[in-house]
Amino acid sequence: MQFITAAVLAAFVGYAGAWYFGVVEGNFALLLFLATVVTGLYWLAERMVFLPRRRQIATQVAQDWEREQLARGGEVTPAARDLVVQRQMQQPWWLDWTAGLFPVIIAVFVLRSFLFEPFKIPSGSMIPTLLVGDLILVNKFTYGLRLPVLNTKLTEGTAPQRGDVMVFRYPPKPSLDYIKRVVGLPGDEVAYLNKRLTINGKEVSKQELPAFFDEDSTAYFKQFEELLGDRRHRILNDDNRPAFIPGAENFPQRDLCRYSVEGVVCKVPEGHYFMMGDNRDNSLDSRYWGFVPDRNIVGKAFFIWMNFGSFKRIGSFQ
What are the Peptidase S26 domain coordinates in residue numbering (predicted)? Predict the structure, then answer.
């Protein structure tokens, strides 16, 4: 078994290494699922086969040791006998690295798959709400529980609302997770023209705030407080960026969008959502690559649990 286990562990390490160096496109959910299954099988085998076998061997070895000690006139004490048994009962390395890890891996698997999943913000598309380096938590059950890997819905949960900050699988490349704000719900007509947002013919209210200083670009940007649904949040606009949408892709149901020099107007299809970043002129979102189908939803982002550059960032957000 130790050779089989070594091969299995080497496969996991090889996959992780290939993922790290970009040789293969990694899937952490699949990797965690496989690790749970493999260590779970070893854990069952340990409880049902290997542990009883070691107990039997340990009992026999202890009895042989007692007879040998008595034959030589040596002393037999309970403590010495327990030490002999304990040595025989120790798990071999290949069980230590499989069955021994199962309780931890299954706990992480359940927590990450059905309750909360951590994410790191990699880009500035959600500035000023979320900054690069923010470590956030995503609620995995608000929008309904889903099977890991397959992403099949198990429970309905609550439908996403306008203004929610959502993590989803990027439609053009579902192996990537994106985070944006829900702007359009199924059936909505969303218009973003001349940098003003309109939903179903009603302009979304926004109030100008003091300019926002972006430390990464060392530049100031116009900042507004926007009321989207019942959520008040801040957005940024860059006067140096044009209103039109350059380089929009040929995404599914693109015919539901109309592009012009002023921006874009889209009719959100059923079962889909229109997503936008709060950093409106520095966000590749639904304006560029289309709608997010319900099956791509990962969860609702709600809490910053750490930012090593600024502990003041810790807390909930809208």
Answer: 95-306
